[in-house]
Amino acid sequence: MNQARFALRDVGRNLAAVILFIAMLAFTAAFLDEYINDALLFQDVLTQINRVQEHRIVNFAVIHPQQLLIKAEMEDLLAEVLQDEAGYSAVIKLQNQAPRLAELGLTCYYGFGQLSQLYGLDPAGLRDPQVPFTVLIGANVRGLGVGDTVTLGDKFSKNIEVPVAGRLPRYASFLEGGTHINYLDESILVLTDYPSWQSFHLRDTGILLQSICFVDRSEEEVHAFVAGVEEYSSFKIRPKDFNQEIGETAALFRDSAVTNIILHSLTFILVAAALISNLLMLMERNLREYAIHRLYGATLGDLAKRILFYLSFIVLPAFAIGYWQMRKNHPFQQVTPYTLRVIGALAVLTVVIAAVYPLLKLKKQDISVDLRRE
Amino acid sequence: MQVVLEASGLEKVYLSGDNKTHAVREMSLSIGSGESVAITGPSGCGKTTLINLLGLVIRPTQGQLLIDSVDSATLTPKQRARHRNQVFGYVVQDFALIEDLTAYHNVEIPLLYRQKRGRAKDKKGLILAALDQVGLKGKEFVKAKNLSGGERQRVAIARAIVNSPRVILADEPTGSLDSKSAKEIMGLLHSLVHAGKTLVLVTHDQALADQCSRQIRMADGMAVNS
Ligand SMILES: Nc1ncnc2c1ncn2[C@@H]1O[C@H](COP(=O)(O)OP(=O)(O)OP(=O)(O)O)[C@@H](O)[C@H]1O
Ligand SMILES: [Mg+2]
Q1: For a tag site, which of A113, A157, A249, B53 has the least CB within 10 Å?
Q2: Closest approach atom of ligand 1 to CA B51
Q3: How many CA atoms lie within 13 A of A37 on its CB side?
Q4: Could you tell me how far CA A175 lies from the centroid of its own chain?
Q5: Can you tell me which atom of ligand 1 is nearest the CA of B93?
C-alpha cells in the first residue's frame, strides 16, 4: 500500500496531465461497446450465414400491385406449396398484437416451417409438429416465464391460449431478407406452420410472399410458384438467390467490423503512446527519488508496483467514466457479461502495455548516477 | 572478530564515450564487525566509488566482494535490495533527500522496505527516536527543502540509522556541519560503533579520521600505506 501512496503523490504532482489522460481515455472507452457489439454482431451474422449456406434458399422480390386482386385459387396454391414444412421458412412480425404481449411491450414473431432449424432457434427441440403453436420467449424477457400462458390473436381473429414452452438461447437471431440480423432476446417467437396460421389469422398475402423462403426446392417448383402467383393474383414476384445475397451481407459486415476495429485500435494506440510518453516524463523526474528508494531497500518490483498503481489511477477511472457514459448513451441496451469482461480486459491490457517500456527502462537504472541528479 | 566485508582485487572502471576512468583499482581490504574505518584521500581519488562498491550500490568491473563470507556476485537483485535495506545504512555525500517530503517521511523510507513489518506505532517510534538522536526534535514535519544544510545532513544520518543497519556507510557525513554539530554527530556514530555497529567513514577531516580504529588512505583509486 505504500507504493499506492507514492503513486497517488505522483498523480498529485502531475494532476493536469492525469486529468487530460482520464478524459481522453474515457472518451475512447465510451465508444467501446459499439466496437464490441460490432465484433459480436459480426460473429453472430457469420454463424447464421454458415448455417443457412448449407441449404439452397430462394426468396422473392415482391412488386405490390396498384390494385390488389387475389383469386380463390391463390389460397389453394399457397396451401399446396406450403404443406410440407421442410420445404419453406417464413417469419412474420406482428407488433404487440396479442393483449398480454402488448402489455409487456414484447414484439411477437411468427416463425414458419424450417425457420427454427435454419437459424438454430430451437436447440432443445421444443416444437411439436402436432401442436399448432409453440411459444418461445427471448433470453432477456422478464415478467413472463416458462409455463405461463399467453393469448395469441387480436380483436380481428380468434384468440387462443398457449403456454410458454421454453426460452430461446441467448443472442438467438435470424436473418431478415438476407441483409439484416434480428435478435430475439427481447421478443416472443411463435413457431407454427402455414395451415395453422391460415386457419387462425388474417391472411396478408403480400407480407407472406415477401417473407417466404424456399428451402432446397427444385427450380421447376420455384418457377411454377412464380407463375401461379402471377396467374392467381395481381402480385408479381421474382425469385432471388438468398445465398448470394447473404454472402454479400457477410462481406459488408466484415468490412465494417474490421474498419471500425482498426480505427478504434488506432485511437487507442495513440492514447496509449501519449500515456507512455507522459509516464516516461514522470519517470525522468522521479529517477532520483527511485534511486533513493532503491538505496534503502526498494526492489524493482516495488517501483514497478508504484508505476502500475499510477497507471491504474488513470486507466481505471477513465474506463469507469467511459462505461458510465456508454450506459447513458444506450440506456436500454442490455449489458452483456461479455461487454463487461472485454472492457475489464482492455483496461488491464492498457495498463500492462503502457507499463512495459518504462519498466524495461527502469531495469537499467544506475542507482549511484541517479542519486546525484538534480 | 567477525569479518563483515572482504574485498579482493576490486576494480571499477567508468566508461563514458572514449573516456575511461579507473576510479578504483587493486582494492583489497577486510573490515571486521565493530570496526570503524576511515577512508581519506584527495577529491576524485575514488572514495565514493569504493563505498558504493562495498554497499552494493554499484557492481565492480573486476574483483570479488564477500559480505558475511558470501560472494556478492551470487546475490540476486532482490537479495541485493534486502542487503541494502538490512545490512547497510547509507549517508550519501549530498544527502539525497526527497525535497517535498518532510524529515519524518524521508527517514521513514528504509522502514517501508523492512522484511518483518512492525506495527505502525513501532515504526513511528523508530522514526521519532532517530530524529531525536540527530537533534532534530521539533523539525519532524518540516519539508526537506525548507531545512538548513546542517539539518538536511542530520536527516540523512537519521535515515541511515533508523533501520538499525549493521554497517553504516557514511560519505562526508559532517561536511555541512559546524564543528560543534560535527562533534555531536561523530559522537553519535561512535556510540553506535561501541554498541557493535561497523562504520565506514569517508572524510577529508584528519581529526575525524584519527578517531577511527583504522584508516585507508586512497590516491588515484588505490590504497596507499593503509
Ligand atoms: N558514474 C560515473 N561515470 C564516470 N565517471 C565517474 C562516475 N562516478 C565517478 N566517476 C569518476 O571516478 C572518479 C572517482 O570519483 P569519486 O566520486 O569516487 O571520487 P571521490 O573520492 O568521492 O571524490 P570527492 O572527494 O570529491 O567526493 C572521478 O574521477 C569521477 O569523475
Ligand atoms: Mg565523493
Answers
A1: A157
A2: 18
A3: 13
A4: 13
A5: 27
Residues with CB under 6 A from ligand 1: A 369; B 14, 16, 21, 23, 43-49, 93
B164 sits in the region (left: phi over 0; alpha: psi -120 to 50; else beta) called left
Among A361, A364, A279, smallest CA distance to A315 is for: A279
**Beta B198-202 vs B167-171: how paired, if at all?**
parallel
Query: ipTM, 2 decimals?
Result: 0.95
Inter-chain contacts counted by CB atoms under 8 A, chains A and B: 58
State the sign of the Cα–Cα–Cα–Cα dihedral B63, B65, B69, B70.
Answer: negative
Q: Which chain B residues touch A291 with a CB distance below 8 Å? A: 96
What is the C-alpha to C-alpha distance for residues B168 and B86, in angstroms, rounded to an integer? 11
pLDDT digits (tens, 9 = 90+) for B123-176: 899 999 999 999 999 999 999 999 988 899 999 999 999 999 999 999 999 887
Q: How far is the CA of A369 from the centre of ligand 2 (A)?
A: 12
- Residue A97 CA to residue A276 CA, distance in Å, equals 57
Q: How many CB atoms lie within 10 A of CB A49?
A: 18
Residue holding cell 533527500? B97
Cα gap B201→B36, rounded to integer Å: 7
Chain B residues in contact with A298 by the CB 8 A cut-off are 81, 112-113
- Residue A364, chain B, CB below 8 Å: the answer is no
Burial class for A100, CB neighbours closer than 10 Å (0-12, 13-18, 19+): middle
| Secondary structure of B46-90 in HEC code, one letter for each residue | CHHHHHHHHCCCCCCCEEEEEECCEEHHHCCHHHHHHHHHHCEEE
**Using CB atoms within 10 A of its CB, is residue A245 exposed (0-12), middle (13-18) or buried (19+)?**
middle
Between the CA of A325 and the centroid of ligand 2 the distance, in Å, is 57
C-alpha distance from A12 to closest chain B C-alpha (Å): 12
Q: At A149, which helix (H) or strand (E)?
A: strand A149-152
- Which among A11, A17, A18, A10 is positioned nearest to A287, based on CA atoms? A10
pTM across the whole model: 0.74
Q: What is the pLDDT of residues A254-271, one digit of tens each?
A: 888 888 888 888 888 888
* Residues of chain A contacting residue B85, judged by C-beta atoms under 8 Å apart: 296-297
CB count, 10 Å around CB of A288?
19
And the C-alpha cell for A279? 509516464
Say whether A299 and B77 touch across the interface (CB within 8 A).
yes
